[in-house]
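Assess the record.
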Amino acid sequence: MPSVPHREINARLGRRGSRLAPPGTGGLGGAPAPGGTSGAGLPGSPGSGGGSGSGRSSGSRGGGAAAGEGLSLRGFFGVFRYSPRAIQLVWSTSATLTVALALLTIVAGILPAGIAYIGSLIVDAVVNAMRAGGGSPARVIELVILEGVLVAAVAAAQRGISLCQSLLRAQLGQRVNVMILEKALTLELQHFEDSEFYDKLTRARREASAGP
């Protein structure tokens, strides 16, 4: 049997523990929590934050993918923002070369379809000649010659496209350099003292000379 002072001390400690530690927290004087999960409901505990953390991470990944797709689409359509200005610049450089380049490009795109069609006619003509018992091959020869002419036309169109591109590139580079110099004549001395501006001007002239 413990002495009376000891019982009083124990009783005081028990009462103080019951006041300090609420039930279910496992503190002094309180009942232990079932299964030892006293901190399961706390915001910083691993058990309570796992689900919400995974939800937030998946949501952030989805938002990042959507943002990246939006940026890529804006970048793709942003390329065509300066297309009218570029076409106007090319047209003002040489309208003749621009029209010739456009026509040759259309011809070079149409002729391969004609070659494929003539090839099918050649096959049909050969089959019909074999069924007719070895008739005159004049029709087949005509189609073969026509296909050869189309192939030569495709090669000529491609050569013409390369020639027009080379001439137009040289003239366009010269025109851009002239435009840069004309713009430089209208600037003040303080603009040329700016290193960033001077670098941009030099880079523009270099790229124009390399080939627009």
